[in-house]
Design a protein that fits this description.
Strand content: over 45%
Number of strands: 9
Distance between the termini: 23 Å
Order of helices and strands: EEHEEEEEEE
Radius of gyration: 17 Å
CATH topology: Immunoglobulin-like
Number of helices: 1
Structural class: mainly beta
Mean pLDDT: 78
Strand order of the largest sheet: 6-5-8-9
CATH architecture: Sandwich
CATH class: Mainly Beta
Length: 109
């Protein structure tokens, strides 16, 4: 769930509006310890380490607007993604098996 805040001023009384933009990622998905990502912030390479797995997992990376910019499979406990050509900003790493989705944020410098 992403929130954008926009401030407007009419005459001399400022007003604030909060818009809730859905990205398909719930706050419960973001709070987990099933995998780690490092370094965070990342400059050239993002390392992903799973605590355990018995199957191939779907890996997706989204920008903060919800656009998927990377899609792949994780087939081992430790993997890495080359992020050297990505724009600086905040990204969401989402790992999915048949039933569960885990999501974490990272910053690209």
């Amino acid at each position: 769930m992403l929130f954008f805040i926009a401030a407007y001023s009419f005459a001399q009384a400022p007003a604030t509006q909060i818009s809730n933009i859905g990205s398909g990622l719930s706050s419960m998905e973001i709070q987990n310890n099933e995998f780690t990502i490092a370094p965070n912030p990342a400059k050239n390479k993002l390392n992903i380490k799973l605590l355990n797995t018995s199957e191939d997992l779907k890996l997706e990376v989204f920008d903060v607007l919800g656009k998927r910019i990377y899609k792949g499979l994780i087939t081992k406990l430790e993997s890495s993604i080359d992020v050297s050509n990505w724009k600086s900003g905040v990204y969401l790493v989402r790992i999915t098996d048949d039933t569960v989705t885990h999501t974490k944020r990272f910053i690209k410098q």
